[in-house]
Task: inverse folding
């Protein structure tokens, strides 16, 4: 199966750091249906919480679901760390992640919460540099 996972661009940097994506209670049913080998299309929203970052709703890459879904109790995502609450507890690991942009200049080992807004804005710029805007995909689909 093929699924679209959607989140702000900074969350794709976090997802790569953890090699996983997570879901909230509303999407628990999807989390339960995902199977190893399923394909995830990575959709980045135009909305970002990073000061100085510019984002466009676009597809930034794809990944393949791995084994070992689990529930987490710690804070991974910027939004969780800001609110001191687990918003997305249902984790699905990736066995492979591929981005359309050359992400070699993004330090995925460094937790997003330890990066300045300036660092994150640069990372987002790199991540989105070869992304495919949803408007372009929609126009191609209609043609």
Result:
């Amino acid at each position: 199966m093929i699924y679209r996972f959607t989140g702000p661009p900074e969350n794709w940097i976090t997802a790569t750091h953890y090699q996983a994506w997570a879901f909230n209670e509303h999407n628990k049913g999807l989390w339960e249906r995902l199977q190893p080998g399923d394909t995830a299309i990575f959709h980045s929203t135009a909305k970002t919480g990073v000061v100085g970052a510019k984002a466009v709703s676009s597809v930034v890459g794809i990944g393949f679901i791995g084994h070992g879904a689990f529930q987490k109790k710690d804070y991974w995502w910027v939004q969780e760390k800001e609110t001191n609450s687990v918003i997305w507890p249902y984790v699905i690991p990736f066995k492979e992640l591929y981005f359309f942009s050359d992400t070699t200049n993004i330090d995925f080992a460094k937790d997003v919460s330890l990066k300045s807004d300036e660092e994150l804005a640069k990372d987002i710029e790199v991540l989105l540099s070869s992304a495919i805007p949803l408007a372009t995909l929609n126009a191609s689909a209609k043609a």
Observations:
- The chain has one domain: 2-142.
- The chain has a mean pLDDT of 93.
